[in-house]
Design brief:
By secondary structure, the chain is α+β, with helices and mostly antiparallel strands. It folds into two domains: 54 residues, no CATH class; 105 residues, no CATH class. Helix content is 42%, strand content 26%. The strands form three sheets. It has a four-stranded antiparallel beta sheet with strand order 3-4-8-9. A three-stranded antiparallel beta sheet has the order 5-6-7. A two-stranded antiparallel sheet has the order 1-2. A hairpin with a 4-residue loop joins strand 8 and strand 9. It is elongated.
């Protein structure tokens, strides 16, 4: 294949393809003054690039600093060192708006519109979420409500996934 086609396939510039060809990063030969790139070799090079990108992907580390960076409130007292995540609902994908009276005016869970009553039940199904610096783990205290939209355990899994995503986005 020619350098333009190879560049499009690899998602790089034509100059990068030429550099790879000169450095033997891909199998290529010159025909009538133009590079002809071997497709299988280019595919291997693209796969290597993807592996390197995956290794460079940011690892998620639960620490006091990362929890505070995503909006947590640090609390230390009586030998405890914790970070409370008071906005756990938004991390789980629960979006709630309120009237001036404090009642729920509209709600959505993970992009799906839900009833105001179900939103209240979801908000009541988890009481507190915190990170304990001593154990390095996230903890929650379940509330008394449970929604038809999702179980408490599924909601907790969504909170943990939201925390991981927020830390990875830092």
């Amino acid at each position: 294949m020619d350098t333009t086609t190879a560049a499009t396939q690899a998602g790089v510039t034509v100059a990068t393809i030429r550099t790879w060809a000169r450095r033997n990063a891909v199998a290529a030969r010159k025909v009538a003054g133009r590079w002809v790139i071997e497709a299988a070799s280019l595919a291997r090079r693209i796969a290597l690039g993807a592996q390197k990108a995956a290794k460079k992907a940011k690892t998620v580390v639960f620490s006091v600093e990362t929890m505070v960076a995503i909006g947590g409130s640090r609390w230390t007292k009586a030998g405890h060192n914790r970070v409370y995540l008071n906005d756990w609902a938004s991390l789980a994908g629960l979006e709630v708006s309120y009237y001036g009276t404090g009642n729920v005016s509209s709600a959505a869970y993970q992009g799906e519109e839900i009833s105001n009553g179900q939103a209240r039940k979801l908000l009541g199904s988890i009481d507190k979420v915190w990170f304990d610096a001593a154990t390095g783990r996230l903890h929650c205290r379940y509330g008394y409500g449970e929604s038809r939209v999702t179980s408490r355990d599924e909601l907790w899994a969504a909170v943990v996934a939201g925390v991981r995503a927020a830390i990875a986005a830092l």
